[in-house]
C-alpha cells in the first residue's frame, strides 16, 4: 500500500523539477502562458485529429487561465500537469502529466504532446521516462496507464518504447474529434513489468 494513502493529499511532497539529459519537466507557472500559447498555435493542426483541446485557448489570457487551473489542481493533487522544456535553451517543447486515478493504490494515467517543430527527436520519450521513474520511485505507483487512439501511431510508439504492455483495445468507446466512433488502445506499466525489463 502506498505510504501516501494515509496522509492528506495536499501534504504529499511533489517535485519542483525533474532534470533529464536534454529536457526539464516541471509544473507550470503563470509566466509560461506566452510560450505555451505559441507552441499550441504552432501545433493546432497536428493536435486536431487527436485532442479536443486543439482549438481551445485562442488568446494568451485563455492559456493563462488554464495554467492557473493546472496550478490549483497541482496544489490539490488532482492532476499533475507539467511542461517539457529544452534543458539547454529553455524553449517550451510540450506538455505531459500524471493524472491520479486512485492515490490509495498508486494508479496513474500519463498523457503527452510535443510541439510540431520538435516531433521525432525523442523529447517526449525522455520526459515520460522521467515521470514514470518518479511515479514508481517516489509515489509508489502500482500502475501507470497510457491510452490513445489506435491511429495515433506516434503516441502508441512512446508507450511501446518505454515497455508498456498493451492490455487491450476498447472498441467504439469514444468519439473522435470529428464526431465519429473510435477505439482506444490501453497500455499499462507495473512494478513487475519494470523488474522483468531490468
Automatic annotation (TrEMBL):
GO cellular component term of the entry, any: cytoplasm
Any one GO molecular function term: protein N-terminal-serine acetyltransferase activity
Residue span, N-acetyltransferase domain: 23-192
Domain of life: Bacteria
InterPro entries membership: Acyl_CoA_acyltransferase, GNAT_dom, Ribosomal_N-acetyltransferase
Keyword annotations from UniProtKB, A to Z: Transferase
Keyword Disulfide bond annotated: no
Protein name as it appears in the record: Ribosomal-protein-serine acetyltransferase
Source organism per UniProt: Dictyobacter arantiisoli
Amino acid at each position: 500500500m502506498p505510504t501516501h494513502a494515509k496522509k492528506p493529499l495536499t501534504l504529499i511532497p511533489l517535485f519542483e523539477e525533474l532534470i533529464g539529459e536534454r529536457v526539464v519537466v516541471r509544473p507550470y507557472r503563470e509566466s509560461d502562458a506566452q510560450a505555451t500559447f505559441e507552441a499550441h498555435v504552432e501545433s493546432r493542426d497536428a493536435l486536431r485529429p487527436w485532442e479536443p483541446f486543439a482549438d481551445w485557448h485562442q488568446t494568451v489570457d485563455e492559456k493563462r487561465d488554464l495554467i492557473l487551473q493546472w496550478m490549483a489542481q497541482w496544489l490539490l493533487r488532482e492532476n499533475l500537469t507539467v511542461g517539457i522544456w529544452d534543458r539547454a535553451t529553455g524553449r517550451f517543447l510540450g506538455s505531459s502529466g500524471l493524472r491520479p486515478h486512485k492515490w490509495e493504490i498508486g494508479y496513474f494515467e500519463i498523457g503527452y504532446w510535443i510541439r510540431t517543430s520538435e516531433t521525432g527527436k525523442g523529447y517526449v520519450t525522455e520526459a515520460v521516462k522521467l515521470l514514470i521513474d518518479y511515479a514508481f520511485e517516489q509515489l509508489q505507483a502500482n500502475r501507470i496507464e497510457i491510452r490513445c487512439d489506435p491511429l495515433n501511431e506516434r503516441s502508441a510508439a512512446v508507450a511501446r518504447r518505454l515497455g508498456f504492455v498493451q492490455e487491450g483495445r476498447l472498441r467504439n468507446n469514444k468519439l473522435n474529434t470529428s464526431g465519429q466512433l473510435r477505439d482506444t488502445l490501453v497500455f499499462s506499466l507495473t512494478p513487475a513489468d519494470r523488474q522483468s525489463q531490468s
